[in-house]
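User: If only I could read backbone structure tokens as easily as an amino acid sequence. Those tokens are not coordinates but codes from a learned vocabulary of shapes. Could you go through the record with me and say what the backbone is doing? Here is the record:
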Amino acid sequence: MNWIFYSIFTAFLWGLCYTAAEQVVKNVDKNSYIAMSNFISLAVFLFMSKNNLANDLVEMQKSSNLTWFLIAVSAAVVGQYMSIMAIETSNASLAASLEITYPFWCLLLAWMLFGTVMSWTAMFGVLIIFVGVLIVIY
């Protein structure tokens, strides 16, 4: 059940991040903001992974791991940039409202790429999210 706490706390922190980022990019170039925040993240996670880093670098060189690693990192980099662009050109609340549709993309891509079976409850939950987004936007 720890995952429930982690998920809810993550949602809270992302809400705080979006709200703060909206204020930051009013005065600071979005690329500078992204670079500075990622530099701090790099320092924190390098410290946290210091005991596993060497082994994980070797493991990452396996072709399937490397391919998915590059896809994940590319998606994260472009996604973070697009997220800040959405916040900068609208506002944090509106951007977050549309970006919350990511469970749909996660389910769809997991099914398309890995054949993951989607439960009816998951599909219904995604439908509720889309309806909620439409209500917020319109």
In short: Helices lie at 2-24, 30-48, 53-60, 63-89, 92-99, 102-114, 120-137. The two ends are 35 Å apart (CA to CA).
